[in-house]
Amino acid sequence: MIGIASSIERRSGVSLWRQIADRILQGIASGDFAENAALPPEVVLAERYGVNRHTVRSAIAALVQEGVLRAEQGRGTFVLSRKRLSYPIGARTRFSTGLQGQTTERHIALLSSSTEPANRRIAEALGIARGAAVIRLETRGEADGHPVSRATTWFDAKRFAGIEDAMAETGSITASLKRFGINDYLRHSTVLSARHADADDLAALDLQPGAIVLVTVAVNVTLDGQPIQFAESRFPAERVELRLSASD
Amino acid sequence: MIGIASSIERRSGVSLWRQIADRILQGIASGDFAENAALPPEVVLAERYGVNRHTVRSAIAALVQEGVLRAEQGRGTFVLSRKRLSYPIGARTRFSTGLQGQTTERHIALLSSSTEPANRRIAEALGIARGAAVIRLETRGEADGHPVSRATTWFDAKRFAGIEDAMAETGSITASLKRFGINDYLRHSTVLSARHADADDLAALDLQPGAIVLVTVAVNVTLDGQPIQFAESRFPAERVELRLSASD
DNA sequence: ATGATTTGTCTATTGATATAGACAACTATA
DNA sequence: TATAGTTGTCTATATCAATAGACAAATCAT
Questions:
Q1: Count of CB atoms within 10 A of residue A26's CB?
Q2: DSSP helix/strand/coil, A13
Q3: Span A168-210, pLDDT tens digits
Q4: What is the pTM of this model?
Q5: Which of A66, B92, B120, B215 is the most buried (most CB within 10 A)?
Q6: What is chain A's mean pLDDT, rounded?
């Protein structure tokens, strides 16, 4: 935020310390609180946000726990380096290539897989009959050893039988699809929303309760427009931002 | 969500009733709870989420207040029609044309305007000197009388002197820019994140405390690539989803 | 060394959140 | 008209969240 005055909501169902932790994270993201520099002292923050010093301390404690801040008695509280990953989304969205330059290592870990009947939403997206078998993959994207995304992906079971093994081996959707003769694919549609992380996301993404996730629901298609993949991905809002590539 | 088991987090800084309200909203969005149909009874929901019936009642009360649900004693609790607006984002993102077909009336209301020196972030985005004067517009997007977005927009004050009057008159960015000889413009970049709504957003977007907003930070440019507008927009995540247009 | 500044810890109190149980009020249907 | 199923209201209790004040412990500058 840039000088947009905004205060804190009471009786909201979201505790004050959580709201203030959010505000501090915003402050870091927007540059109000510089990295590696000291935060204003607790008393100042308490006055700025109109709360008790102990409430500010709770917020700081949560962020210390999260690895965003480091508190040193007598010196101050410092912002650790915490540049958010910028995840590009466009026609050629790929997990690995998208994070090139920002991380040295990245891969997709397969958490679990199963076969199930397609519900209406999935059947429509993949252009198959409702109730037809689909393979569901539960995956986690990791970069430099840290989780950056959590996705649930569906494939037509008939066409992509055994893709779960390919995923487990290669750690890449792109590489797995190659085994089925698909050398290139495009993102057909992306719908974006946000919500609180649920317990599963919290565990998989190593988040603190109350965290927010960005949610994308996307359909990938072959070059001639045939749908091949339906996916819902969750990104931790405090660690990842989505950058929409204008062209491409 | 499609059959993704997930539970509720305690001691998270987000109260249980707020988390459950979120989950019910998700359920409606994903089709788990059909529109105009009855929700499962309170006792069932309480058991499903592992909380007390009174906690579920608090969540329902909040959603009734919000206009999402209607409770009828003796009969049940019903889901009101609540299709989320789908806001398209692409190279030619326009507020009014983007919502065509989904709403009958829409315009942008100018809440306030001011002139201020550009900070580093804005100066870089607009390609002007740091400290140069910029015009800041605080606006609210409305469709069929309901608020759907809240934006803060900056223009180079030198080039667009008086644009606040044009905005107040026309209720449209596109129309206002025409007065300055700009008949077409493109979206150069969009960065996407999410956070809890602050007090200002809550009031302007008519949200309940604890609500989540999708945040886009965008730069618009002329056809030859000259930056003209820098904007941060907030969309209520529970009422709006962002649809990324693949091409165009 | 001394004092000013800052984070850390402790006690106490208040209000919001969550659980628990009981029963009233209302609706639909057998 | 019973009866089962549902939401609405009430009381009571325990725990968490937030405020308040005091002081200890560590750091830094003078």
A1: 19
A2: coil
A3: 999 999 999 999 999 999 898 898 988 888 778 888 998 877 7
A4: 0.82
A5: B215
A6: 86
Alpha-carbon gap, residue B141 to B139, rounded angstroms? 7
| Tokens describing residue B242 | 């962002």
Say how far A74 CA is from D29 C1', in Å: 13
Give me the residue from B187, B191, B237 closest to A193, CB to CB. Answer: B237
Q: Tokens standing for B60?
A: 């329902």
CA closest to C1' of D20 belongs to A52
Interaxial angle between packed helices A42-49 and A16-30, expressed in degrees from 0 to 180 and rounded to the nearest 10:
100
Could you give the 3-state DSSP secondary structure of residue A108? strand
Nearest-10 Cα torsion for B70, B72, B77, B79? -30
Q: Decide if A166 contacts A173 (C-beta within 8 A).
A: no
Which tokens is B246 given?
Answer: 């693949």
Cα A117–chain centre separation: 27
Q: Does A196 reach chain B within 8 Å, measured CB to CB?
A: yes
Residue B129 sits at the chain A interface (C-beta within 8 Å)? no
Which neighbouring-strand residues pair with A110?
A139
